[in-house]
Automatic annotation (TrEMBL):
Gene name as annotated: aroF
Record bears the keyword Transferase: yes
Annotated ranges, domain DAHP synthetase I/KDSA: 17-259
Highest rank taxon of the organism: Bacteria
GO molecular function, one term: 3-deoxy-7-phosphoheptulonate synthase activity
Protein's UniProt name: 3-deoxy-7-phosphoheptulonate synthase
Enzyme class (EC, first level): transferase
Organism annotation: Actinomadura gamaensis
Alphabetized UniProt keyword annotations: Transferase
Length: 263
């Protein structure tokens, strides 16, 4: 269903009316985690002022340590809905458990499946039935074929509104959080018809890498980027070192605007 063999034209996926697909270079930005109404609104306003058209923000956070901030759950979803009402920006947010899909879908404009759940088949199937577009991150240990097969699980349930997101893979390299597999973008676009975006924040894991990795994403023809931003990264409850602040984000948005996307 997601293969290019049966679907020669590359697809455009619309999220609350915002297109992601060939020629779009959609900018998605927002906080890694929803912490407070003020922090979320400030991050969304920064994102919007810079030119982002979709807002990200995690209410359910899949954390390595059970002692780390796990997200606000439904209270976080309500904050996202309030910020959407204030800014008009459609919301992308992660769902980590099949049992929560209906709840998250009742607030979100797009469901995000994270790298740790990239082969959680029950979750993928539930997301495929939720009636909302799905952003499917690549498993950190997953091959491109496994990623496309994960998308197939969503598609099989009748939902072809799927966007693939390359977010870096595990390699021996420790200087970056993950190794951005930039070649996965054109390969996934050649094999499948789905839009492919890049997450330079979670791949590099460091603020100074977000702009260069975004340039790389644009150069290989990614259909968008998803970026962590925070009004005060030093106080962030999740992934502060990779969050951009206002000025960085405006510079990044300028690059996104000025580098013409490959179609
Ligand atoms: C995220 O985008 O908030 C996230 C946790 O990403 P990943 O699943 O790529 O680690």
């Amino acid at each position: 269903l997601v293969s290019r063999e049966n679907h020669r034209e590359r697809s455009v996926v619309r999220v609350g009316g915002v297109p992601i697909g060939p020629g779009t270079m959609t900018l998605i930005a927002g906080p890694c985690a929803v912490e407070t109404p003020e922090q979320t609104l400030a991050a969304a306003q920064m994102a919007q002022a810079a030119g982002a058209t979709l807002m990200r923000g995690g209410a359910f956070k899949p954390r390595t340590s059970p002692y780390a901030f796990q997200g606000l759950g439904e209270a976080g979803l309500r904050i996202l809905a309030d910020v959407r009402a204030e800014t008009g920006m459609p919301v992308v947010t992660e769902v980590v458990d099949a049992a929560d899909v209906e709840l998250v879908a009742s607030y979100a404009d797009m469901l995000q499946i994270g790298t740790r759940n990239a082969q959680n088949f029950a979750l993928l199937q539930a997301a495929g039935e939720a009636g909302k577009p799905v952003m499917l991150k690549r498993g950190m240990n997953g091959t491109i074929e496994e990623w496309l097969m994960a998308a197939e699980y969503v598609a099989q349930r009748g939902n072809l509104d799927i966007v693939l997101c390359e977010r870096g893979i595990r390699t021996f390299e420790k200087a970056t959080r993950n190794t951005l597999d930039i070649s996965a973008v054109p390969v996934a676009q050649r094999l499948g018809h789905l839009p492919v975006i890049v997450d330079p924040s979670h791949s590099g894991g460091s603020r100074d890498l977000v702009l260069p990795l975004t340039r790389a994403a644009i150069a290989v023809g990614a259909d968008g980027v998803i970026i962590d931003v925070h009004p005060h990264p030093e106080t962030a409850l999740c992934d502060g070192p990779q969050a951009l602040v206002d000025g960085d984000l405006r510079e990044l948005a300028r690059v996104v605007r000025d580098l013409p996307p490959l179609v």
